[in-house]
Design goal:
The complex is a heterodimer of chains A (51) and B (493). Chain A has two helices and no strands. With 51 residues, chain A is mainly α. The longest helix of chain A is centred in the last third of the chain and has 21 residues. The N and C termini of chain A lie far apart (58 Å). The mean pLDDT of chain A is 72. By secondary structure, chain B is an all-alpha fold. Chain B has a single domain, classed as Sodium/glucose cotransporter, CATH 1.20.1730.10. In chain B, helix 12 packs across helix 13. In chain B, 61% of the residues are buried. The C terminus of chain B is likely disordered. Classes of the chains: A mainly alpha (51), B mainly alpha (493).
Chain lengths: 51, 493
C-alpha cells in the first residue's frame, strides 16, 4: 500500500502552478457574464412577481 | 399535423440551433478540440453549459409530472442537484482538472488500476447508452405533443437529428449551443411560469379571480383536492427527498455528461468555481415547472401527468407558450447532446483507444469519436421508438452511477482504498441495482422499501469497505498500477 500511495502523491504534485492557472475571469467571459446575470435576475424578478 | 404558433416557434428555434452547430465546426482541429474544446473554456461559459446540460427531461417534464401527481415537494429535486454540483465543485473538480483527464473512468485509472478503469468504462457506457434512449424518448414525446405526430416516429427523427448535430463539432458544438440553450431555458420557462401565475390562474372560474399561489390553492380546493398538501414543500415524504439528495450528491460528482465541461475549463480554478455558479442557476427550476404542472391539474387540462407541462404550454397565450416550449426543447436537446457526447467520449477514448486499440493516434481518435457518436446516436434513436416509459428508469441510471463517485471519493481520501474494492463495488452496484430495479428474480422493493439511489449507494459503499479491509497489498498489486504512472516512477528512480 505504501508503494501505491507514494506513486499517487507524486502524481498529484506533478502540475506546477502557473499564472494562467490563477485567472478566474478575463475579457472573453464578459458576454457570458452578462448572459448569466440576465438569467439570474430575470428568474428571480419573475418568481417574486408571480407569488 | 396541427400547425400552431408554438410549432412554428419550435421549428425556427431548431434551425437556429443547427446553424450554431455548423458555426462551431470551424473550431475543431484535433481530438482535444472535439473532446474537451481544447481545454480553453472560461468560467461563465462552463457554468452556463453545466446548468444547461443538467436541466433536461427529468428537470422539466419530470418535475412537472411529479408535481401534478404529488405536489410541490418536487422542489427538493433541484435543491439536491444544486448540492451535488456544489460538492463536485468544492471537493472534486480541481482533482479531475489537474490530471487533465477527459473521462471519469480515466481518473479511476490513475487512482486505482486497469481493471477498475475498465469496469468504470463499462458502467458508464451502459448507463449513458440507456440514458440517451430515455432522453430521446422524452424529446420525442414533447415534439409529438406539439406536432401531433406519432410518438415513435417523433423519437426516431429527434434522435437522428441530435446525432447529426453532434457529429458536426463535438464538444464545441455542445458548448456553443448550450449558451443559447441556457438563455432559452432561463427566459422561456420563467416567462411561461409568470404568465400562468399572473394571467391564466385568475381566468379559472374556481380561482376566485386572483393569481399566484393563493389563486392556485383556491382552484385546487374547488377541484376537490387537498391544496395545503399539494402546495407543501414536504408533500413527497422523507424517503423520496432523501433519495433525491443521495441521487444528487452521490451521482453528480462522477456524472460524465454534466462535469465534462469542467474538464474543458481553462484552469483548475475555473473548473472548481463554475459548477457552484451553475448550481445557483438550476435552483428555482422545479418551482417554475412544478407550478405549471399543478396548474394543468387545477385547470383539468389533462389526466396524464407526463403531458402536464406540454398541456399547460399549449393552452396558454401561443407566443408565451411557444417560447416556453422552446425552453423545454432547449433543456432536452442540451441534455441529450451532453449524454450522447459523454457516452461516445468514454467509448472512443477509454474503451476503443486505451483498452482495445492502444496504438490509435489523435487523427484516428477524432474519426472514432465521430463514429461512436453515430453508432450510439442512431441505435438510441431506434431504441427510443420501443421504450414505452419515459422517465421511470432515469433514477436507476443516476443510482448505478453513484458507485463511481464512491470509488473516486474513497480513492482520494481513504488510504486503505484497494483496487479490488473499486472493481467489485462497481460490479455489485451494477448487478444489484439491475436486479432491484427490474425485480430479478423477486420484488426486492416490496421487502426493503428503499429508494433505488439508497439501495445502490449502500451496496457499493458496504462492498468497498469490506473488500478494502480484507484485501492485501502485494507486489502484484503494485505491478497492476497504470503503466504510465509506474513508468514515471521507475524513471525517477
Amino acid at each position: 500500500m505504501e508503494k501505491k500511495k507514494e506513486i499517487f502523491y507524486e502524481e498529484l504534485s506533478l502540475p506546477q502552478p502557473e499564472t494562467k492557472d490563477l485567472i478566474l475571469l478575463d475579457l472573453t467571459d464578459k458576454p457570458f457574464l452578462i448572459i448569466y446575470s440576465f438569467i439570474f435576475v430575470f428568474g428571480i424578478v419573475l418568481t417574486i412577481l408571480s407569488i | 399535423m396541427v400547425v400552431s404558433t408554438q410549432l412554428i416557434i419550435l421549428i425556427v428555434y431548431f434551425f437556429f440551433i443547427i446553424f450554431l452547430g455548423i458555426l462551431a465546426m470551424k473550431k475543431v482541429k484535433g481530438s482535444e478540440d472535439l473532446l474537451v474544446a481544447g481545454r480553453s473554456l472560461g468560467m461563465m461559459f462552463v457554468s452556463v453549459s453545466i446548468a444547461a446540460e443538467y436541466m433536461g427531461g427529468l428537470g422539466t417534464i419530470g418535475t412537472a409530472e411529479v408535481a401534478f401527481s404529488q405536489g410541490m415537494g418536487v422542489i427538493w429535486y433541484h435543491i439536491a442537484s444544486a448540492c451535488g454540483l456544489m460538492l463536485f465543485g468544492f471537493a472534486f473538480a480541481h482533482y479531475y482538472r489537474k490530471y487533465n483527464v477527459i473521462t471519469v473512468p480515466e481518473y479511476l485509472y490513475y487512482l486505482y488500476d486497469i481493471k477498475s478503469w475498465k469496469a468504470a468504462s463499462l458502467l458508464n457506457v451502459i448507463g449513458y447508452w440507456f440514458f440517451t434512449i430515455i432522453q430521446m424518448t422524452a424529446m420525442g414525446s414533447l415534439v409529438a405533443s406539439v406536432t401531433g405526430f406519432d410518438l415513435k416516429w417523433s423519437a426516431l427523427i429527434c434522435g437522428v437529428a441530435m446525432t447529426v448535430y453532434l457529429l458536426a463539432a463535438g464538444m464545441w458544438s455542445v458548448a456553443f449551443t448550450s449558451v443559447a440553450f441556457m438563455l432559452t431555458i432561463g427566459s422561456g420557462i420563467p416567462l411561461a411560469f409568470w404568465w400562468v401565475m399572473k394571467y391564466e390562474i385568475p381566468l379559472l372560474s374556481t380561482s376566485g379571480g386572483i393569481g399566484g399561489f393563493a389563486g392556485l390553492a383556491n382552484a385546487l380546493t374547488a377541484s376537490g383536492l387537498n391544496a395545503e398538501h399539494l402546495l407543501s414543500p414536504f408533500s413527497l415524504g422523507f424517503m423520496v427527498i432523501l433519495g433525491y439528495f443521495l441521487g444528487g450528491v452521490l451521482g453528480i460528482p462522477a456524472a460524465q455528461a454534466t462535469i465534462n465541461y469542467s474538464f474543458g475549463a481553462r484552469n483548475w480554478k475555473v473548473a472548481r468555481l463554475a459548477p457552484v455558479l451553475a448550481a445557483i442557476l438550476i435552483l428555482p427550476l422545479s418551482i417554475w415547472t412544478g407550478s405549471m404542472g399543478l396548474y394543468a391539474k387545477a385547470a383539468g387540462l389533462t389526466t396524464n401527468p407526463k403531458l402536464a407541462l406540454g398541456a399547460t404550454l399549449m393552452n396558454i397565450n401561443p407566443i408565451i407558450g411557444g417560447i416556453g416550449i422552446a425552453g423545454i426543447f432547449a433543456a432536452l436537446v442540451s441534455t441529450v447532446a451532453g449524454i450522447l457526447f459523454g457516452c461516445a467520449s468514454i467509448m472512443a477514448k477509454d474503451v476503443w483507444q486505451r483498452w482495445l486499440h492502444p496504438g490509435t493516434d489523435d487523427k484516428y481518435l477524432t474519426k472514432w469519436t465521430r463514429l461512436w457518436i453515430l453508432i450510439i446516436g442512431v441505435s438510441s434513436a431506434f431504441g427510443a421508438m420501443t421504450l414505452p416509459k419515459i422517465l421511470h428508469q432515469a433514477y436507476f441510471v443516476y443510482s448505478i452511477r453513484s458507485a463511481l463517485m464512491i470509488c473516486v471519493a474513497f480513492g482520494l481520501w481513504w488510504k486503505a482504498a484497494h483496487p479490488n474494492a473499486a472493481f467489485w463495488s462497481m460490479l455489485v452496484a451494477l448487478v444489484g441495482g439491475t436486479m432491484y430495479q427490474f425485480s430479478i428474480p423477486i420484488n426486492f422493493n416490496a421487502f426493503f422499501h428503499l429508494h433505488i439511489a439508497i439501495w445502490c449507494g449502500l451496496l457499493s459503499f458496504i462492498t468497498f469497505i469490506i473488500i478494502s479491509l480484507f484485501s492485501r497489498w502485494t507486489a502484484q498489486t503494485a505491478n497492476e498500477l497504470p503503466p504510465m504512472v509506474y513508468k514515471k516512477n521507475k524513471e525517477r528512480r
